[in-house]
Design brief:
Low-confidence stretches: none
Helix content: 25-40%
Largest sheet: 3 strands, antiparallel
Structural class: alpha+beta
Radius of gyration: 17 Å
Distance between the termini: 56 Å
Order of helices and strands: EEEH
Length: about 80
Amino acid sequence: MRYAILVEPTGTGFSAHVPDLRGCFAAGETREETLILIREAIEFHLEGMRLHGESISAPASTCEYVEVTQPHDASPN
């Protein structure tokens, strides 16, 4: 399965979470470390769901980028 993740910088490194798996998150000092940790967290999370008899739905979240322009400064001089 392929899950969308959101990676964000923090004051001490990076954090990541999986929108399709509530409560599944990881944090690391570097982006690379965080990506490794979130992969492990997803695998652990799914294994826990299986052990508890929970159904695992197919991933549904996607990621898109929207480009916007910044408004010009309209304040008077």
